[in-house]
Design brief:
This protein has 286 residues and is mainly beta. The chain has strands at residues 10-14, 17-21, 49-52, 55-56, 59-63, 67-72, 79-83, 94-95, 100-102, 106-113, 123-129, 135-138, 170-173, 177-198, 209-215, 222-228, 240-260, 277-285.
Amino acid sequence: NLLSNKAILNYFVKNNETVISLPSGIEETVFPICIKIEGVEKNVAISPIVKVNGKIVEGTYLFQDSIEVEIISSDINAEIKYTIDETSPNQNSKLYSEKLKISESTKLNTISFKDEFVESKINSVQFYKIKSVKDLQLKNNPSEKYSKLDKFILVDGKRGSEKYNDNNWLGFEGDNFETTLDLGESKIVKEVHLGCLSDLNSWIFLPKNASFYISDDNIKFKKISESNYNVSNTENQKPFLKDISAKINLKTRYIKIVAENIKECPAWHKGSGGKAWLFVDEIILD
């Protein structure tokens, strides 16, 4: 309760954050508020760890055939529950007891429970079963610093990290990114994901526009999806990855992706007027 008010405070938990509602008639902007919280603090269970071939997997994992997934906890007394149907796991979810065989694109959500402990934070990993690419062409070559990297790093199944110089990214200074992928034959493609990097301190911005096209003959292309993005001075300054996605659900052989560079650093940026970088890595064909 508030030190000057004996009213019980209402609260709720959302996205691992506790939100406390103030009593009516009290404005949080009028004066500093001191809140006294009474109760017994509970320990929190440790989140499960997901492994493939003995290596820890976080975020996303790409594969082509099928894989075996192991879920472990550093606490032998913890109980692991999981879901593979996009829902959040709870006490009623399936109990993990043996390795999971995954042969299709799947989102795995895991959670740990332990007596007298608060349940762990959910650990989610998105598994993508990717399609092979026979060939790809770039309209614009990467900037000189990245010209020695093989263009096929875009579809090699290895995702770039938050470090732009990890040799998994192709960088374009002031230029757009445009590629055409040849699948070798017509295949059903559910979704396409273009991995991009934002690192404002290194003058790297997300594309302001990304368009996706399909074709059966590599001549006539049909636009399937378009996404726009406006960068602002409130953008996260720390490096982060963003997948720009398009739902296709059609049979096609050729896929063209065009990502438009913002060209110049915005007026509010420390590099105002200088050439902006566009970094792309893994193209995921689901």
